[in-house]
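Supplementary notes (optional reading)

For those who missed the lab, this is the record we used. Protein: Nicotinamide-nucleotide amidase. Length: 206 residues.
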Amino acid sequence: MTPGSSAPPDPAEPAQAAREALRLLIGRAETLAVAESLTGGLVAAELVAVPGASVAFRGSVTAYATELKHEILGVDSALLAERGAVDAEVARAMAEGVRDRLGADWGVSTTGVAGPDPQDGQPAGTVFVAVAGPRDTTVSPLRLPGDRGAVRRASVAAVLELLTSELRRSTVAGPESAAAPVAGRQKDKGPTAAHNGPGTSAGGQG
């Protein structure tokens, strides 16, 4: 499933994307860390299901409660108070925070509203996924159909496919470009879907 798609994902897609992402990471001698909210560990599970994942996978944080996004991942508390957990900038900060705290080259994150109820003013199926690399950060907003399980599975596929896309893009750009410091370290993809994650209360929808 590509970012912006509203079609239910093929169950094989997350596994294929996980294998490809790890192949690229291992080939570059780079590492990955994962921060999850609405997916509750499903992204990490897809990665560790791949034989040899330990070569590149540093670990994961499931920051389901909103305050843990600040306490563990370093997401700004004022940002969370103002926008809630379902927000593009929160997804960005989660990916960058887990990358830095777990000492990885790359960080990915998921946050959104799995449903069935809306959260933080966002309808069910609104999800944000982010990939923070050595040079910049990309956030993809999604609007996903289906029930709670379908939204969570589609979010896993989306973030792993975004990671694979960003790894390939940085390979084309060249290692010297990927390693160069860039002010701001951020890049947004246009709105393509919604994000889900815990709301401002400790036990959010995500």
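If you only remember one thing from this example: The chain is about 40% helix and 15% strand.
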